[in-house]
Give the backbone structure.
Amino acid sequence: MNEARVLLVDDDPALLQALPEALRLRMAALTVDTADSAAAALDRIADRDYDAVVTDIKMPGMDGLELLAKLRTHRPDTPTLMITGHGEHDLVVDALRAGAYDFIQKPIDRDYFVASLCRAIETRALSRRCKEQQLALERHLTELEAIVDERTRELRETSKVIESPFRWMMGPSGQMEKVVRQIKQVADSPLTVLIEGETGTGKELVARAIHQLSARCEKPFVAVDCGAIPDTLIESELFGYEKGAFTGAHQRKEGQFQLAGGGSLFLDEIVNLPLATQSKFLRALQERRVQSLGGKKPVPVDVRIIAASNVPLEGEVRTGRFRQDVYYRVNEFRITLPPLRERDDILHLANEFLPEAGTELGRPCRKISEAAAQILLRYQWPGNVRELRNVIRRAILLASDVIEPEHLSVMPVDPDPPTPLCGGPAPVDSSLKEIADAAAADAERQAIRRVLQATKGNKSEAARLLRTDYKTLHLKMKQYGIPAGQFRQ
Amino acid sequence: MEDTRLSLREIAGRAAAQAERDAIRLALHATRGNKSAAARLLRTDYKTLHLKVKQYGILARQFRGA
């Protein structure tokens, strides 16, 4: 038995002196406190949680039974042993009924007393352990509840993020409700999804929503615009290449397939995939393996493919521009996004964008006049929801209070691009050559600055990294006004 | 962004290609797929534009109608 502490209560000073001695002799590691009255006992009990209490029944003032009753209330777990005189059967019965652990008759049989006290202390230890375990369990439960709360909150946040792009695309239109239903249906399946819809209808938003709602949501979502990559680069972009696979392949590079590992790969404008790449893509779809350029053998990849096209792929198959077998593979589940002109919620969307753009552009929210609303309803919206959003944004900047027809840049005669496709500056005043030259110069300037930063202004090293010669680099730095000094420490 | 391991020439080339492609798509969009008009807008000749459209795999057709 580990260290235990008991309280002995008796009005007989001789007993208070003799009994602790006797107990200590027989029980190692036992501490005995004494009290010569019930009142004194209560004081001690208030300060300390005893392993057991031994009390005489008959005491002047508060007697043992009364003390027992108080103990049962304040320390219900502390076993109490009652010392009774010879033949006090009624008292014994009362005490046991009141919850006493055991009774010891005078004259005290010390062996019996010690055995009973030991049992009492053990019982106490046991119940204490039980209670600790229960507390631990409760604590654990509270923690679990907190975790559940936390997760619920996170999920709610996530769903808010997921629902918000939906809100972006949808008003109270039946067509869009169907789309949202389809997204929820297909998200957690392994099916390859084909999203068809005109430019600006929200194909990428749908793809992202599918990814977010799938079990892959923690893994990467990689978007590739197949139309944005020249034919000659698309294979290396998708499948990667090994060092030395071709001239200029100085380093191994992972393809988008590998980068999307475990997650989703969104192939936008898939119709732009050259036929040669399509066959390679088909193999990747069928075998779930990809072979990088110059790679020795195909490597398994776990990627969910979501493809999008702004023209019906079926038509492209008929004209022979898109392979039928690839089409079948991609078209396991199709989501078709309706063009805005066929939707009945144009004004609802416009009114949604109004406060949003108003806040963003720092102009107080305005309303759309009846005449302007009529124009919005009649317009053909080649750029769809994206165009509507941009039109509203522009109108907010122009209008002073109410959006009127003259603030809307949607006149059917308007030859301007209704919406920049890639967010870049519109090609109004620059020639193709100027545009290309400016972009090249910009990229060069950035690259040179980046490399100089990395080499701490060492021009020879920078030239080597950029695989150009020192003189060229020096000239370009002069041309772009980049002082090497600012990169030195 | 561009890979640091590309040479300066490649970086410039890629950026130029990207910008050209974007500009051509914008111009085709503005002219509803009319390549002659797009070429005029971009102050280049029809042949150059036609070549680049092909090179970048742009489908002029997709900008027609609407």
Observations:
- The CA atoms of residues 33 and 63 of chain B lie 5 Å apart.
- Chain B has a mean pLDDT of 82.
- Chain B touches chain A through 43 residues (CB under 8 Å).
- Chain B has one domain: 8-63.
